[in-house]
């Protein structure tokens, strides 16, 4: 664990993606189906799920299948989806957007957000431990995971719900403080440059992110995130409670053996603003004055996520009769606000999200169910090495393959970013996919279609 490792900036676990949210069904050639199956490999967060749902027509249905290499990432995806699905009776859209972004991008959160997170974790524990055959919620389906993976999820959720030990308590191990864990990573990444860290932060912002077209990322907000992991501070409050969903374990070699350390091992350079905060269809949010953006990536993230949540509400299905009757008879007590059971969550018409075992990618071609099954297959930059020739067997004849490129991984040089794009094209070609060309192709994602034989 030597100091000053440039490659450490992106981290070793993907808490958020290195690209903006994409409607994956409008990426690539136009398709005429009305029932879509989308496979996400290593997407890290639900941004593409939410964005793709928002683009669906009323008569279309979407089934998303998710593979992550870590149950810690699966647990966080489930948490973020849970928050997104909370009904307006439990939490208004403005507040839900704030809480979602807070949990999504802040190492430290407010006490009331911590309470919402704990209640969600308790419900998710019940969901993964008590559901054997049928999912308790179509968008939180963990029934296909292995038993040991579901046990691991339950263990993670239990960690999130543990009360903070009092100063007099000697029974619990000392909790990981995000402030300490974050500063350790910054020191490790910068090494001897730590004493001039503010200049380093500014250089990464102006010479890298701004040069890559992310001018909406505000200098003060980015510096605060780089300094202490606080990306979204949308209302006055005390952000001092560790966000447990951003903690994970990492194994290091030490004195001939292996030791596991719990801490913050995600991105500390590129920022969570990339997922929702650098693109928008509302051009008024991109206006500049005297060369400076009037709105920030935080503002754009809020507007985009709020709009995505409104799209979810528009697909909301009717609750069962018994649930509906109960709701009609009893007004929601104030004490129950900001909490919802799995059954209270919005059920979305024609939408399902299913989590697959972490080692399942190369087993899917062996199963008849998945033969030429997926209309879109998405690979994150960190999972490109898993893209192989068997992908053609699970891709529908008119499938689209979308691969995240390395544009926003800031520790890479321009030559390395270009080399990565070339490698992606080569790997896709070996898997019998060819580049799809159109006027809208960008340097953030590479888009491929099956080779015509």
Distance between the termini: 50 Å
Q: Classify the helix fraction into a percent range.
A: 25-40%
Order of helices and strands: EHEHHEHHHHHEEEHEEHHEEHEHEE
**Rounded average pLDDT:** 90
Query: How much of the polypeptide forms β-strand, as a percent range?
Result: 5-15%
Query: Runs with pLDDT <50, length 5+?
Result: 167-172, 320-335
Name the structural class. alpha/beta
Radius of gyration: 22 Å
Largest sheet: 7 strands, mixed
Instruction: Enumerate how many helices there are, as a single number.
Output: 13
- Number of DSSP strands? 13
CA-based shape:
globular
Q: Which quaternary structure do these chains form?
A: single chain
Biggest sheet, spatial arrangement of strands: 9-2-1-10-11-13-12
Short structural description:
The chain has 453 residues and is of the alpha/beta class. Helix content is 35%, strand content 15%. It is globular and about 60 Å long.
